[in-house]
Amino acid sequence: MGAAKQTGGNDTALAQLRENVGLSTLSLASIIVSFSLVVAMAIMVFSFRESLDHWLGKLLPADLQLRVPFGNDTAYWSAADQEKLQALDGIARIEFRRTRHYCWTPPGSP
């Protein structure tokens, strides 16, 4: 008698699946779409991290980054200061450069 009840239960479950094929398809499609979005987000985050790391490596190539405040045209790193900084332990590379803010006004602009 227990086997008859189990078979009847399986028949009922199969009948419900047959009648609700559209609903089952919609559920499966939703799961596939959500998984695809998770994969796409993971790829996007990984790509952003790699791009940011590459960009920072080009922008800030030295181990030590120091800057003289903008707006001060007389401030600079003297040769003695540069040698002291170069002699610090744990610094593989140090660069010195001077930058200046420049505001370009296109010709003919008011």
Description:
This protein is an all-alpha fold and 110 residues long. The protein has three helices and no strands. The chain is elongated, with a radius of gyration of 33 Å. The N and C termini lie far apart (95 Å). The model has no long low-confidence stretch (mean pLDDT 81).
Strand content: under 5%
Helix content: 55-70%
Taking pLDDT < 50 over at least 5 consecutive residues as the criterion, the unreliable ranges are none
- Estimate the mean pLDDT confidence: 81
* Radius of gyration from the alpha-carbon trace, in angstroms: 33 Å
Structural class: mainly alpha
Defining key terms:
mainly alpha
Detail the topology: elements first, then pairings:
Layout: H1 2-19, H2 21-59, H3 79-86
